């Protein structure tokens, strides 16, 4: 299985209290339910030396609490990877409960193995809905 890792980032994510641009983490100032949204504009570069078959043609984007992406408390979106070189957009949105001081961050699970670049204009936001 492939490990989850942060993509290369060209763009900046939205600023706001609790969001650390260096780590890409949003830390909850209060315990409560937060509405998370992330929209990533991604370009995939296919290595010329080897071509992939049908296997591994999916891309998963997750918003995970405390980097626990295997846990049930995450948001997930899955997209089919189309042909290389065409930019595409993938969004993930939903509600997560965070304790005060817990963080949420965006992960990209790149099963295809070809390099991805997250382009500018991508965003990640969190809004406190209620405690």
List keywords for this structure.
Jelly Rolls; 10 strands; five-stranded mixed beta sheet; 131 residues; mainly beta
Can you walk me through this structure?
With 131 residues, the protein is mainly β. It has one domain: Jelly Rolls, CATH 2.60.120. It is built from no helices and ten strands. Strands 1, 4, 7, 9 and 10 form a five-stranded mixed β-sheet that branches. Strands 2-3-8-5-6 form a five-stranded antiparallel β-sheet, with no helix packed on it. Strand 2 and strand 3 form a beta hairpin. The protein starts with 7 loop residues before the first strand and ends with a strand. The relative contact order is 0.39. The N terminus is likely disordered.
Question: How would you concisely characterize the structure shown here?
Answer:
The protein is mainly beta.
Outline the fold blueprint.
Elements: E1 8-9, E2 19-20, E3 25-27, E4 32-44, E5 58-65, E6 74-80, E7 88-98, E8 103-110, E9 116-118, E10 123-130
InterPro entries: Adipolin/Erythroferrone-rel (IPR052136), C1q_dom (IPR001073), Tumour_necrosis_fac-like_dom (IPR008983)
GO molecular function, one term: hormone activity
Main location: secreted
> Low-confidence stretches at least 5 residues in length (pLDDT < 50)?
1-14
Order of helices and strands: EEEEEEEEEE
Distance from first to last alpha carbon: 37 Å
Helical coverage, percent range: under 10%
Strand content bin: over 45%
CATH topology, by name, is: Jelly Rolls
Question: How many alpha or pi helices?
Answer: 0
What is the number of independent domains?
Answer: 1
Q: Summarize the main sheet.
A: 5 strands, mixed
Query: How many β-strands, per DSSP?
Result: 10
Q: What oligomeric arrangement do these chains adopt? A: single chain
